Amino acid sequence: MTSNEAEKQGSSRRFQLPFQIRVEPRLEVPRWLSPVVSLGAIITALLLGGLILAFVGGNPFQAYAHIAKAAFGNLGVLSDTLVKATPLILTGLACTVAFRMKLWNIGAEGQFYMGALGASIVVLTGLVPEDASRFVTVSVMLIAGVVFGAFWGFIPGWLKARLKVNEIITTLMLNYIAISLTNYFIFGVWSEGGFQMSHTFQRSAWLPRLADFAEQMPILRGLTTHFGLVFAIVAAVIVGYVLYRSIWGYEIRLIGDNPRAAEYAGINITRNTVLVMMFSGALAGLGGMSEIGGVVHRLQAAISPGYGFTGIIIAWLAKLNPIVVIPVAVLFGGLILAGREIQPAGIPRLIQGIILFMLIASDVLLRYRIRIVRRAERV
Amino acid sequence: MDPIIILHAGVATGTVLLFATIGEIFAERAGVLNLGLEGMMLIGAMSAFAITVQTGNGGLGLLAAMLAAGILSLLHGLVTIHFQADQVVSGLALTFLGVGLSLVLGEGLSSAGAIALLPKYTVPVLSSIPLLGPILFTKQSVMVYIGYILIPLSWFYINHTRFGLHLRAVGENPTAADAMGLNIYRLRYTYVFVGGILAGLAGGTISLAISPGWFSELTTGGMGWIAIGLVIFAQWNPWRAAFGSYAFGALRRTILDIQGPQMIFGLRNPFFFNPYYGFFLQMLPFAFTIIVLIIGSRGALRKRLGAPAALGLPYIRGERGL
Amino acid sequence: MSVLAGLYKPEAGTIIVDGESADFNSPKDAIAMGLGMIHQHFTLIESHTVTENILLGLDDPRFLMKLHHYDKKMETLGEQYGMQVTPAAKIWQLSVGEQQRVEILKMLYRGVRVLIMDEPTSVLAPQEIEELFKTLRSMTVDGRSIVFISHKLNEVMSIADRITVLRQGKVTAAGIHTATTSKPELANLMVGRKVLFQLDKTAKEPGDVVLELKAVSSLNDKGLPALRNVNLKVRSGEIVGVAGVAGNGQTELGEVITGLRRCTAGEILVNGQDVTNKSARVPINLGVAHVPEDRTHVGTAPNLTITDNVIMKSYREPPLAKGSSLDHVAAREKAVHLKDEYTILAPSVDTQVRMLSGGNLQRVILAREFSAQPVLLIAMQPTRGLDVGAIEGVQRLLLEQRDAGAAILLVSEELEEIFTLSDRIAVIYEGEIVGDGVEADAQQVGLMMTGGKESSPEGTTS
Q1: What pTM was estimated for this model as a whole?
Q2: Is A1 on the interface with C (CB under 8 A)?
Q3: Rounded Cα–Cα distance for residues B245 and B249 (Å)
Q4: Nearest to residue A48, comparing CAs of A364, A350, A362?
């Protein structure tokens, strides 16, 4: 090329920076990156939430400080936070299990209600005699809660497995149906004096809680944390074992990643779809039972401020790791507990939404990286 | 329990579902699943109400609704199209976001009092048509008429224009469309935005025309989710979407009316004598959505039609230099 | 080539078109300058018509799709170049050869002057290839140029005027005139070492019948017959190669044997055991290995690790299974061992397999399937999309398994491969085995592959 031509080329080319920004897929994800990105997402979400709060006239600093104190400030509120965390752990686990197989169980809320209904039915209909021991009563309630929840998971699971019906919508619809059904029983069957609740259960249907032991250990006085927490933690360990150490867990993960490969490997996807949805429903149902037996001690309307939906966010934030679900649930438990006192009322829900959004948006940082490359010199 | 009244109300309420469903059809035809309908509709409803309260102008309210929901939908677009996040989770996040924002920003709106509703019209000649006249053309909100126009318009656009061809191509095989020079990103953003606008319109229709007022979450009461189910029932076709939407609207009215009279068809009305059976009535729209889904899924399998082939999948064109 | 077609941006260097440097930001730019590419995997919208596909992305028609008007135009265009098309037909209704014609028409309609074709013959039978070559030659008559990408040296030698060889992204020889070179020389340029075209295959006396198909019939995904009354036997220690043009039932053949598709009639026996219409697990437990056609969508789980992928068939049995648990340590050990043995190039066994190249991905699959010492191996297009070096490796492994006594059913679109590896050759056409135990003669086999003639019954039933 003559120098004339080279000059012509140089002058006709538009101005370019001497380096180029390239976005490339990552070959490997460093282990530290994932939690750091998640943390960053949460902090950003809190900042954004604070901004919006300020926009509507609130004081974000005050609000956040209040949340921290009202949720974790002393033993009493910490205990209350754990109470809120208990159902969240269980719904978080329910979503974790289902999501691992790419089954979008949005119905944890409904399964929760059904579990509560089941646990209440065995008590209110006298299936369990009033004078039965606590151990028997609670055990039957537990089984009922799990069975009802599993059944509510079975329906969408079967519909998906056999008729290929989209489980997102079916589980969601079943939420509304479950709530209506429960309401019918509350208002129409067991209502006491026209109130939105049944009569309080007998003592043997109450889950033991820390405050019960205040005589032996005065420090436990007034602490509302109940035995449901034990159920939740045990459930987390079981789910952890299933997913990471068991053969079934391997199959679930394989189906979740590539159903065709799972089929090719001889795994029965239909059966697993139903089983996993039942497992998921059972966990949420257990949450419902635990809330009935450990907190309200009767069947009443609106026993859940959206535990089932928050469970989705918890599962996602925990990156579908059942053990991580526990601390995440505690965090959200604190948020819900303290958030009740913040104006406006939608703030906790809004923050949850922003957190989830930031989380999925930040995932991109795990898949791609930015590299700055010197542009090649043109000769 | 007058059938004319029920169908009339059905068309009115159904218009809300119609806007949301057709909006989602546009987005899904382009290959993007947007589950955030409930959130977008709610923020549309809130914005429409809030702006109308402030300005007294329903038209501005509608505009605000469309804008608010549209912006929200673009967020979903950004995360799913550019960041290639999972469309299902992003849609759910959008719902939380939309609902949360509506509740926060709409605080105190319920005490705002009465506002100027959107006008209702009766079409002179058409309203005299026996049966259809009183249902379709008598004293219906202007939004209903807009709905009537939207149906054939969207059908025509999708199936008989060049842009419709591009839209369908992007949702069926984005790789092929890309190779033929279509800008996949731009087209997907566009139609996600269209979906958002129509969802906002749906929300505005609720708070300014059909069930005027602001009732927090109860304003939309799950209609966004029903719309998503209707898209599958509609097999991504605007005409079927209209049928489904209006039918659901009629169902809602039926549920309300059925609790009124003492006798129905000569028999004692159980819903009158035991008001708690009303809870079962409440379940009906949701149970019907499930049934509608089952029909839609089986129909799809049978006719070998079905969802746009690339629905729900992010489009990645290898390594890109900026 | 993707750079030329506008899909990727070059990091360095220039493209000069008509004497001016060109900067393509998208395929549209490239086509505007007259460069068009037909990919190996067609860029067609299955549910749309031929005309709709050809018109896709153009500014004309401006608004209304007057399909009748354009249908006629497409027909005329096709006739001009000797290609028959039905403009109103939907793509999924067309044969692969017809679909390819639509792709070519797409480019011609846009006035493309340089047509790039990527492995165009991989889906065609010998007779269809000849037709394609005729079309290409007629296109060059009115001044168009063709860039013909292929690894099939026979075809390259047949159709090309000049040849350029690429190895690992670099040009090793540019613009050689075909007359001055030869296949061995080209292969050498491609791989960088002498490539043996003859693999050492020891003659072997086949053993007992391992796989038997009796009157097997099956439907494809569209509900049309895919297999009709198939009878086939494969013995231990022999490779039965099934030649056929893609879409004649080979895929379904592999699927019915491995339990991934139902038969509507007939019986399938593995070592005498009936596996007809049983779940996929039954053949796996009987020692049937399956190397699937689709590596990424069927054969592997992309986001799972190499370890997870390699245990996909063996995780249910000890030593990997301990009751209901999975022994992680043992699984990882096995993976490390296999990674070594099959030279899978990857940072570690914890790497997600979506990061692996095609060749390495295939090695993961082979490691998994071969290491189980299968009694029957169903190998579907095992070397598709691999470079010459990798192909050689795979073929060697197949022969090793055969020598170790496995019965192998090899389905391949590469006639060369079938001829080289098979102890017995069968031909499949429209779901029927039209030839079994035929001669390794490209002409004859090619005819059978396109329904030309049935082979006369052999004296022995093999």
Answers
A1: 0.84
A2: no
A3: 6
A4: A350
Number of helices (H) and strands (E), helices first, in chain C? 15, 19
- The answer as to whether B310 is a domain residue is no
- Which domain range does residue C22 map to? 15-160
Which amino acid belongs to residue C13?
G
Amino acid at residue number B7: L
Most confident of A2-16, B150-164, C198-212: B150-164
| Residue C204 CB burial class (10 angstroms; 0-12, 13-18, ≥19) | middle
What is the mean pLDDT of the segment spanning C425-442?
86
B316 within a domain of the structure (yes/no) = no
- Residue B314 lies inside a defined structural domain of this protein: no
- Cα–Cα distance, C326 to C317 (Å, whole number): 10
Tokens read off for C324: 């209901």
* Co-location of C382 and C256 in the same domain: yes
Which distant-in-sequence residues (6+ apart) come within 8 Å of A78 by Cβ?
Answer: A71, A72
C273 φ/ψ angles, rounded to the nearest 5 degrees = -90, 140
Is residue A319 within 8 angstroms of chain C, CB to CB?
Answer: no
Find the helix packing angle between B58-77 and B37-55, rounded to 10°. Answer: 150
Q: d(Cα A265, Cα C142) in Å, to the nearest integer?
A: 53
**Shortest CA distance to B291 belongs to which of B228, B229, B224?**
B229
Q: Say yes or no: C296 contacts chain B, CB-CB below 8 A.
A: no
Last residue in a domain, options C120, C140, C160:
C160
Q: Do A246 and C324 touch (CB under 8 A)?
A: yes
- Residue burial B54-68, b: 16+ Cβ < 10 Å; e: rest: eeeebeebbbbbbbb
Residues C346 and C230 in one domain: yes
- Side-chain-facing half-sphere of A28: CA atoms under 13 Å: 10
Of C382, C254, C300, nearest in space to A265 by CA:
C300
Structure tokens at C374: 């299968």
Can you say how many angstroms the Cα of residue C413 is from the centroid of all Cα atoms in its chain?
Answer: 6
User: B232 by DSSP, 3-state: which?
Assistant: helix
Query: Are residue C216 and residue C148 in the same domain, yes or no?
Result: no
Tally the domains of chain B.
1
Residue spans of alpha helices (H) in C148-241: 153-159, 183-191
pLDDT value of position C6? 67
* Secondary element (H or E) of residue A378: none
Each residue of A47-66: pLDDT tens digit? 888 888 888 777 888 878 88
Q: Do B102 and A351 touch (CB under 8 A)?
A: no
The enclosing H or E element of A203 equals: none
The answer for residues whose C-beta is within 8 angstroms of residue B137's C-beta and 6 or more apart is B122, B123, B126, B127, B129
The residues, ordered by sequence, that sit 6+ positions from B128 with a Cβ below 8 Å of its Cβ are none
Angle between helices A269-291 and A247-257 (to 10 degrees): 110
Q: Is C302's CB within 8 Å of A27's CB?
A: no
Domains and CATH numbers, chain A: 30-58+344-368 (no CATH), 76-342 (1.10.3470)
Higher-pLDDT residue of A264, C193: A264
Q: How does DSSP classify residue C305? A: B
Please tell me the total count of domains within chain C.
2
Non-local CB neighbours of A256 within 8 Å, separated by 6+ positions? A99, A100, A101, A102
- The pair of structure tokens assigned to C329 is 């340590």
**Which CB contacts under 8 angstroms, 24+ apart, belong to C398-402?**
C398/C239, C399/C199, C399/C200, C399/C201, C399/C239, C401/C370, C401/C374, C401/C377, C402/C204, C402/C237, C402/C238, C402/C239
CB contact under 8 A, C106 and B162: no
Which residues of chain C make contact with B182, given a CB cutoff of 8 A? 56-57
Distance, CA of A17 to chain centre: 47
pLDDT at C451: 65
Q: Which residues of C touch A268 (CB under 8 A)?
A: 279
Partner-chain residue, chosen from A166, A176, A347, that has the shortest CB–CB distance to B104: A347
C1, part of any domain: no
CATH number (domain holding residue C146): 3.40.50.300
Same domain, C220 and C72: no
Domain range spanning residue B80?
3-303
